[in-house]
Structures are given as C-alpha cells and as structure tokens.
Amino acid sequence: MYWRLSNLYFWFFALLGGLLPYWSLYLEGQGFSYLQIATLMATIQLTKIVAPSVWGWLGDRSGQRVRLVRFGAITGSLFFAGVFMEPGFYGLLLVMLAFTFFWNAILPLYEVITLRALGTRKDKYGKVRLWGSVGFIGAVAVVGAILEWVPVSYLPWLLLPVFAGIAVSAFLVPAERGERKPPAPKGSLKAIVTHPAVIAFFLMNFLLQVSHGAYYTFFSIHLEQHGYGKLSIGLLWSLGVLAEIGLFLVMHRLSHRFSVRQIVIGALFLTMIRWILIAELTMVVPILIFAQLLHAASYGALHAISVQYIQGFFGKHHHGQGQALYSGLTFGAGGALGAWMSGFLVEGISTSAAFWGGAGAMAVAILITWRGLQPMPKVDEETGR
C-alpha cells in the first residue's frame, strides 16, 4: 500500500518539476512578454480556485475519489496536447486553463485518499508525500540536463513521459469502496469556515502563496538574468525540494516538540528572510544555497501542518471540501494573485522587486498568525469530528 500511495505523488510532482522551473523560460523563448508569462503561469494556480471545490464536492458526494483521480489524469493529459499546436497567447491560455482544470483535481482528492488509507498512522503521511519531492527533483535534474543540449522549445516533448507516468500510476491506486455516508448536520460547513482560527489559517496560507508568486513565475528568469545556466537553475530548484524531503522526515518530531503556532510563525519568518536573500544576494552562491534550503520552511513545514489542520477542523464529513478550499483559496487565489502582481513588478521595476513584494506579504501573514491562529482540535476516527 505504501508504494502504491507514493507512486502517484512521484509522477504528479515530477510534472511540476518539469513545468515550474522551465515553463517560464519556454514561454520567454516563445516571445511572450513578462505580463503574458505571468498570466499564463497564473493559470496553473487560477483553476485551483474552482476545480478542487468541484471535484472535492463530487468526491464527497459519490465516494468515488479514485475514479475521479483517474479521469482527471487522462483528461488533463489530452488537453495538454493542445500545446503542440502552437496556438499563440490566447490559444495557449485556453489550453492551460483546460489542462489545469482537470489536473488540479487530482491532488486534493488524492490527499483525502491517502489520509483515509493511512487511518490512525497519519504520522506516516510525510514519508508517503516525500516521494512527490523525489519525483520533482528527478524531473528538474533530468529536464535541466537535457535542456543544456537541446533548445527550450523541446520542453513539451520532454514532459510526455511524465504524463504517461501519471496516467499509469492513477490506475495502480486501489479503488475505494462505494461510500455513501449520511449528510453532515445542516450548516456545519459554514460554522467551520467562519471560525476565527480557520479564517486566520486561510488568510495566512493565502498570503504565503501570494509571496510565492515571484518564485514560481520568475525565479528561473531571475537566475538566468544573473548568469546561471539551465542545469544550475535546475539544481537550485532541486536543492529546495531536497530540504523539503528532510523536513518531511523529521516533521513528526517537530510536531511533538513545538506547538502549531510556533512552527507556523517560525516558518513564515524564515520565508520572509528567504525572499529578501533571493532579491538582494542572488550572485552570492552560498547565500542563494541557504535561501533555497529555507524551502523546508516555506513549503514543507507549512504544507504538512496545513493538511493536518484541515483534517482537524473539517472532520470526516467535510474533509474533501476542506482540502478543496485549502487548495482553491490559497494555492489557487493566492498563487494566481501573486503571479500577476509579480508580473507587474517585473515589467515595471525588476525581478528583485517581485521578491521584495513577497517578503512584505510574509510580514502581514506573521501578524495575522500571531493574533489569530489556534491549536487544531483532536479528530475522533469513528465520528470524524
């Protein structure tokens, strides 16, 4: 079961490893402006606002999450094929919106499948999820090495084997039993999402993803402007994910030693420092390496805490919708807004200015967390509450 759960994480994040570091360079090579690049990159996050909620609702209502994951994997791959038609800016925008609408359905559904499969062994989540990080690193390294020898215009072709891996691994996940549970008490979802601690949690994560807009959209271009080659860019991306893997391996120890609030505030502060270092000290290689190691805080620690926080507050009846809201309101709305804002800052000032904007978002997130975040409640495995 461990390997069957880990397999889809590996291929899903391998695709991210091929897209995030190099897709902006591919778009730049196609002649798009910085604002157009920001808009196209934002679609990866934008469809997370709607798609996970739609698919999460279907998953909760039908109990057929595995079938929905398989459908998303196949349909998303078919829509991505539109990239090979070289449709221009508006055509590519439609292709990416369609592709990501189905592709973004996979992860929130699969997070629920994984946590359900683990049952009382939820402390093992990090060890399952780390294989996503391994896939990301492998794709970044392999694609980066190949792009040292071939033009970046070949990138879509290099992603085809990864799409095949996603499709195959989706069919290796054992099907869930049809589960039609009784409906939750009326109005309970509204009571959860209006809880002050949940509002603070979502605001914190929203600002966290706003701050990542410059990183996911312009980090590779920022490095290329400072003289780094594609393989070096790929290795720096991989370094951040290696730090994330190390964090996942020790996260259960940190959770026992520190409170949720302490971990979140510490991680947000380190994230703010990370963006400042990238903005101002890009050419100092040891400092840039240290900044990339801080990915363990800016993504690893905060995501691991957030997945468990959602489960703690939303319980069994609304777990799928809770994961969908987390994905949509934070990675979706926050990530898309961050990408667009960074596009304006890069177009008008510089890539460094975009990272300073991310640092400012983190300062606000720290204040919100300090005032509003509360410990997550215990979950009863039988009732889900």
Q: Calculate the mean pLDDT score and round it.
A: 81
Q: Into which percentage range does the β-strand content fall?
A: under 5%
Order of helices and strands: HHHHHHHHHHHHHHHHHH
Are there runs of 5+ residues with pLDDT below 50, and where? 178-187, 379-385
Query: Count of DSSP E strands?
Result: 0
CATH architecture: Up-down Bundle
Rg (CA only): 20 Å
Question: How would a textbook summarize the main sheet?
Answer: none
Helix content: over 70%
**Roughly how many Å apart are the termini?**
26 Å
* Form type: globular
GO cellular component, one term: plasma membrane
Membrane topology: Multi-pass membrane protein
InterPro entries: HcaT-like, MFS_assoc_dom, MFS_dom, MFS_trans_sf
Organism: Marinobacter nauticus (Marinobacter hydrocarbonoclasticus)
